[in-house]
Amino acid sequence: MKIFISGIAGFLGSHLADYFLQLGHEVCGNDSLIGGYLENVPDEAEFHQIDCGYLNSMVKLTKGCDIIIHAACTAYEGLSVFSPHLVTQNTFQITSTMLSAAIQNNVKRFVYCSSMARYGTQDTLPFTEDMVCRPQDPYGIAKYAAEMLVATLCRTHGLEYVICVPHNIIGARQKFNDPYRNVAAIMTNLMLQKRQPIIYGDGTQKRCFSFVQDCVYCIGQAALRDDVVGETFNIGPDNEFISINELAALLADILDFDLDPIYLPDRPQEVRFATCSADKARRKLGYKTNVTLREGLTDLADYIRRLGPRKFRYHLDVEIVSDKTPRSWTDRMF
Predict the structure, then answer these.
(1) In terms of residue numbers, what domain contains 189?
(2) What 3-state class would DSSP assign to 112?
(3) Residue 70, exposed/middle/buried by CB under 10 A (0-12, 13-18, 19+)?
(4) Which of 12, 33, 83, 327 has the fewest CB atoms inside 10 Å of its own CB, making it the most exposed?
(5) What are the start-end ranges of the H helices in 167-269?
(6) Angle at CA 10, nearest 5°, toward 307 and 60?
(7) Residues in a beta bridge with 3
(8) Do residues 56 and 40 make contact, with C-beta atoms less than 8 angstroms apart?
(9) How far apart are CA 93 and CA 105, in angstroms?
């Protein structure tokens, strides 16, 4: 089959491209390179450096494709509170563009990569797919709105669709010189520069982290299997639920770094405890955690060490600057 991947130069998109190429499919895709590296794109994949927002281009590029996997997004949950135009435009609006192109070209299946931000703060943990979503930042709101758009348009126009909800993915190819996202990569890049990591709040907020290859397998199954159409799946582990303080300590141990974090005030609208149940993905997609958190972080650290730590680049504008804007961004502390 011919598979189109938006965000193909990104962390997740490039690994998905590798996966489908290894299965013998034809792979093509696009990327604006806002959040990815050109070197991530496999040589065997057809690549177009163009933004998803251009409808005519997306119609042209997706013509003849059987499946679209929409992985492109400015996945900036914290930044979205201060740059809502940028983040929602490159989350919700580009999804409508990709859907319109898919429908015009009679694409068979549309796979949407959503986010755990859809859940917001819930009364119980872990998050399950049947919960009422309560997104509490512009990114999560845009992601969930895009999910509803996917379901509505695909049902109306006869496209198959699957919604995948990966969360906190780590591993090689993750962008690590971006000061606005990817906490594990940011910390690793700083430590390799002999600089202390920055932690917002008291560091007791908790997350689970997903190794990229474990996620890729499930998204691949969501794209190819016939018995998952119309379903939503959490993709990622529900074990090793750790605090940001514990994450910093684990990375420091891996890197043999003398840890003394810099603590800054909480970021507005940040969910304190976030972890998803993987039970549905286990039952229907064969999901399993093959890589421990320590192994995944070691893979990430080895990748950054191999490329060499890089200077952080403030490549995105902060639209709203106030006394609530994190000082790490306004003072360029990374």
Answers:
(1) 183-207+240-273+291-330
(2) strand
(3) buried
(4) 327
(5) 183-192, 212-224, 244-255
(6) 140
(7) 27, 67
(8) no
(9) 19
Looking at residue 9, what is its pLDDT?
98
Backbone angles phi, psi at 124, to 5 degrees: -135, 155
Tokens of 257: 């770094």
Return the closest-CA partner of residue 266 out of 181, 323, 326: 326
pTM, two decimal places: 0.97
Q: Three-state SS for 138?
A: helix
pLDDT tens, position by position, 62-71: 999 999 999 9
Location of structure tokens 């049947």 = 130
For the segment 230-259, the average pLDDT, to the nearest whole number, is: 97
Helix (H) or strand (E) holding 273: strand 273-274
Residues 307 and 326 in one domain: yes
Question: What is the SS3 assignment for 92?
Answer: helix
**In terms of C-beta distances under 8 Å and separation of at least 24 residues, what long-range contacts does 284-289 make, across chains too?**
284/227, 284/228, 284/231, 284/233, 285/217, 285/218, 285/221, 285/222, 285/225, 285/228, 285/233, 285/235, 286/217, 286/218, 286/221, 287/214, 287/217, 287/218, 287/235, 288/214, 289/211, 289/214, 289/237, 289/239
* DSSP labels, 57-75: HHHHHHTT-SEEEE-----
- Helix or strand holding residue 284 (H, E): helix 279-285
Return all residues near 186 (Cβ < 8 A) that are at least 6 apart: 176, 178, 179, 197, 198, 312, 334
Are residue 165 and residue 296 in the same domain, yes or no? no
Q: How far apart are the first and last CA of the chain?
A: 43
